[in-house]
Design a protein that fits this description.
Elements lengths: L13 H10 L4 E4 L4 H9 L5 E3 L1 H7 L10 H15 L3 E4 L7 H14 L3 E5 L18 H14 L4 E6 L2 H19 L3 E4 L5 H9 L5 E5 L11 H7 L3 E4 L2 H20 L12 H8 L1 H6 L17
Parallel strand pairs: 1-8, 2-3, 3-4, 4-5, 5-6, 6-7, 7-8
Helix pairs in contact: 2-4, 4-5, 5-6, 6-7
Length: about 300
Amino acid sequence: MPYVIADDLPEEPAGLRFRRMLEAPGILQMPGAHLGISALLAKKAGFEALYMSGAAMSATMGLPDLGMITVDDVAWHIRQVVRASGLPVLVDGDTGYGEALNVMHMVRCFEEAGAGAVHLEDQLLPKKCGHLNDKKLASAEDMAAKVAAARRARRHLVIIARTDAAASEGIEGAVARARMYLDAGADAIFPEALTTREMFVEFAQRMPGVKLLANMTEFGRTPFFTAAEFEAMGYAMVIWPVSHLRVAARGMEELYAAIRRDGGTQNMVGRMQTRAQLYETIGYHDYEALDASLIRTVVPEGMPQG
């Protein structure tokens, strides 16, 4: 059920709720959901926390994931997801949108928008998806300074430090960086683009007692693993960052092709969410009930035949 206007959103800060979930037994599973409608559908499926991908937000805006979107762009997405679902979200903070002061500004903006956690990465701009080639890394000292700035600015927000060093510096370099980021104040570590089960296991074994995030993105460098497999390897969180967008984009692509081919949508109706299902998802009648001047909408049962 969505949080309609008259409902009270959770009073406890999202960061505290996220931290409690992170400390609970079992792996915290967070599917990507960067729009209000996707947040509602993920919540309906039973998920208790969500992930907001910079790549998904960028692609929705018709832009590549090269660090082009702004703090305000992301905060707009956070507000709608939090308002719609009330769930704590982990947000992709890219490189922090600049240096230490910019990172502090980002943390305050994201937390005020309702985020529960953020992750920062140790790439230089223009940044790339973690599973692509030729990523340029900041020095470990510069990244640690950003982590320290984020820690100083946050009230309750969980700070996760991502390192992309495994591709160029190996596990040894990634572990060394992770330890420096923990010393700077990170609450958890996100080792990006590990390519084998052995790498995931080794990284976890060398980070005993540390909360670790695994990224299960498709068409990348990481083999498919289930949430249970990541948990067995020593990971406390797993995200599926862009999966929802990939499915939705393929669906839209097929719809537009069908309209061009068939002259209409008649052959795609069976793949659509019905009007009644959509209204149930977004709480249409719950909103109507808040305004006595509105007459309850009667949803058509089906489409008339020509």
